[in-house]
Amino acid sequence: MKRKRVSYAKYGYFFCIPFVLAFLIFSLYPIIYTMLIGFTDLKGLGTTNIHILKDDLFKNFKTILGNNSFQTAFRNTWKMWIINFVPQIVLALLLAAWFTDTRSKIKGQGFFKVVFYLPNIITAATVSILFAAFFGHPMGPVNDIFMSLGWSEKPIYFLRNKAVAQGVIEFIQFWQWYGYTMIVLISGILGISPEIFEAAEVDGANRIQTFFYVTIPNLKTILLFSLVTSLIGGLQMFDVPQLFIAKQGPDNATLTTSVFIYNQAFSGSYLYNRAAAASVIMFLIICVASACLFITLRDKEEIELHKLMRQQEKAYRLATRAARKEGKAK
Description:
The structure is a single chain. The chain is mainly α. The chain has helices spanning about 10-35, 60-65, 70-100, 110-120, 125-135, 140-150, 160-190, 195-200, 205-215, 220-235, 240-245, 255-265, 270-295, 300-330. Helix 2 packs across helix 13, helix 3 (about 70-100) packs antiparallel against helix 10 and helix 12 packs antiparallel against helix 13 (about 270-295).
């Protein structure tokens, strides 16, 4: 008797249903609705009448792009992301290479990894309030240190300085995320074949040469992932600058695009149409920037190899068809 085969593949679709429904309701629908709001006159709390701007469909987008506060927020966001990401990726790379180096037998690796990753577990709100207390005026640990060491005769209002306010936020972002980036890079290095490192060691390559000529080239995909995810998170920076200092600091020093969108929508203005337009603009900027990174950092050799393989497959199929036709003709 033949046994009837039971196919379990169909059950996978049932397990996917909760995620698909959650994505459609809580992600896709809000995104589409936000895009539509950007072309309307929706403003004010409790407004039910929504009209599409027929005279000038892109009026809200033009208003946002010409807004001085949005331009300042856009510059601040890029500046704070770049300044915190560069040292973050450098330190994460060095630590990842150190932990995965078989030649240096590090004791207590697990402890160090936990310590370095620990800041990422602490909530951004807690860190923001903690650092705001550190630089408090007139009383705060930093002021106490300065006065006890004789560096200042009276309390300094650190957060009135634009460079200090931005610098603290940049340090917070760096301090919170370098551990996460380190873990991602460690997983990427562990995925590289050990034979490559052994061959480099046999050929007489030292640790620095192995790092630059073996580790980095084989980490292109992971580095691209870290760069893109950091870019997306950096351009959406909200909680730290919002909670660290009231009213976005001196001369809007800590104003980011996400904080600007929040202020437009909820901080008394209730300009939902402009907030939606700003959200769409940032969404498009993130998409374009991510696409540029993918195109710039993609593995060109792998792409060329893939094209060559496709050409060979195509030539093989054509040769096979020609051989079949000749066989039928005979």
